[in-house]
């Protein structure tokens, strides 16, 4: 038994020696391979090439699909970010514009402390009547009444035409169908004894020229010197629109058809193409049954009419004299 066991061990050792010798011989660098090596290398290269190309094609296809999906997801995320950026940019610009308008309105409020102003937003403007009327979000429940003047931070834009409980319709100065005239004055200057004084020249704003986009003021007395860029404001003599509301600036002056009065063309102060926030001016006077204008007094003050039919405000801030005429 020991002989055969030793014989097997000897065979294993001899086999290991031969294997190591073959491995050592074949692993060294040689200029020429043996024919079995060449046969096996060629055989394996052909078989490997036969399977490698389809496998590479399949692997490349799935890799392209994965890359395309990744690009799609990345493009989708970028589009969502771009849409959000555009939305935020639009909101930012809108907030900046609104902030500018509100600041201008605040300045206008400070300059018109003698009037009570009610703020409103424009909620509707029909393209068919773009130059005629707008709808605001304040009505009877907010103290709005018919014929109240409506302004922006720049100037007068019209009057309240009709009133509902929670909304009102405002007729614009640019309305083609406007029938009401506005009593106004041109702020001219005169030099008297070396001092410059403001000399108001009266007239009536009667219509709007849609071609030139200018208001037309008529009935200006002949001989009064009216120049371009002079300011036009409301006179308050019509009994409807309060005084000292800016209307616009003179562009040019022409004689009327009969040469008895002058006609002025006015560039409106307000921008009628962009009406968002407006202010309704509450009149500080009422009209008595006999046509006299009676100023309204703040709480605790009284109004004492004089013998001449004039009403004077006891606070001394403003006096209104006369009767309601055909203008505003």
TrEMBL record:
<feature type="coiled-coil region">
    <location>
        <begin position="78"/>
        <end position="112"/>
    </location>
</feature>
<feature type="domain" description="Rod shape-determining protein MreC beta-barrel core">
    <location>
        <begin position="122"/>
        <end position="282"/>
    </location>
</feature>
<dbReference type="InterPro" id="IPR042177">
    <property type="entry name" value="Cell/Rod_1"/>
</dbReference>
<dbReference type="InterPro" id="IPR042175">
    <property type="entry name" value="Cell/Rod_MreC_2"/>
</dbReference>
<dbReference type="InterPro" id="IPR007221">
    <property type="entry name" value="MreC"/>
</dbReference>
<keyword id="KW-0133">Cell shape</keyword>
<comment type="similarity">
    <text>Belongs to the MreC family.</text>
</comment>
<feature type="compositionally biased region" description="Low complexity">
    <location>
        <begin position="295"/>
        <end position="322"/>
    </location>
</feature>
<dbReference type="InterPro" id="IPR055342">
    <property type="entry name" value="MreC_beta-barrel_core"/>
</dbReference>
<keyword id="KW-0175">Coiled coil</keyword>
<dbReference type="Pfam" id="PF04085">
    <property type="entry name" value="MreC"/>
</dbReference>
<protein>
    <recommendedName>
        <fullName>Cell shape-determining protein MreC</fullName>
    </recommendedName>
</protein>
<feature type="region of interest" description="Disordered">
    <location>
        <begin position="289"/>
        <end position="328"/>
    </location>
</feature>
<comment type="function">
    <text>Involved in formation and maintenance of cell shape.</text>
</comment>
């Amino acid at each position: 038994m020991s002989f055969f066991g030793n014989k097997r061990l000897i065979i294993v050792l001899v086999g290991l020696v031969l294997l190591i010798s073959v491995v050592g011989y074949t692993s060294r660098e040689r200029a020429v391979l043996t024919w079995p090596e060449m046969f096996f290398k060629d055989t394996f290269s052909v078989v490997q090439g036969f399977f490698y190309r389809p496998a590479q094609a399949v692997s490349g296809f799935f890799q392209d699909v994965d890359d395309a999906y990744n690009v799609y997801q990345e493009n989708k995320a970028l589009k969502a970010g771009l849409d959000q950026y555009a939305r935020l940019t639009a909101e930012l610009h809108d907030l900046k514009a609104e902030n500018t308008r509100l600041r201008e309105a605040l300045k206008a409020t400070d300059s018109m402390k003698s009037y009570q102003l009610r703020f409103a937003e424009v909620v509707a403007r029909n393209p068919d009547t773009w130059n005629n009327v707008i709808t605001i979000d304040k009505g009877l429940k907010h103290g709005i009444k018919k014929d109240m003047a409506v302004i922006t931070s720049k100037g007068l834009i019209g009057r309240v035409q009709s009133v509902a409980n929670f909304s009102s319709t405002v007729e614009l100065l640019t309305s083609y169908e406007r029938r009401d005239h506005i009593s106004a004055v041109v702020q001219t200057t005169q030099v008297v004894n070396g001092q410059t004084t403001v000399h108001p020249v009266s007239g009536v704003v009667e219509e709007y020229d849609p071609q030139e986009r200018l208001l037309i003021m008529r009935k200006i007395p002949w001989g009064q010197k009216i120049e371009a860029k002079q300011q036009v404001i409301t006179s308050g003599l019509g009994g409807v629109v309060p005084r000292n509301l800016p209307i616009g600036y003179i562009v040019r002056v022409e004689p009327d058809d009969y040469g008895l009065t002058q006609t002025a063309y006015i560039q409106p102060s307000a921008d009628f193409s962009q009406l968002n926030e407006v202010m309704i001016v509450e009149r500080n006077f009422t009209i008595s049954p006999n046509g006299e204008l009676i100023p309204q007094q703040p709480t605790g003050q009284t109004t004492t009419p004089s013998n001449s039919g004039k009403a004077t405000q006891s606070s001394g801030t403003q006096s209104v004299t006369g009767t309601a005429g055909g203008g505003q």
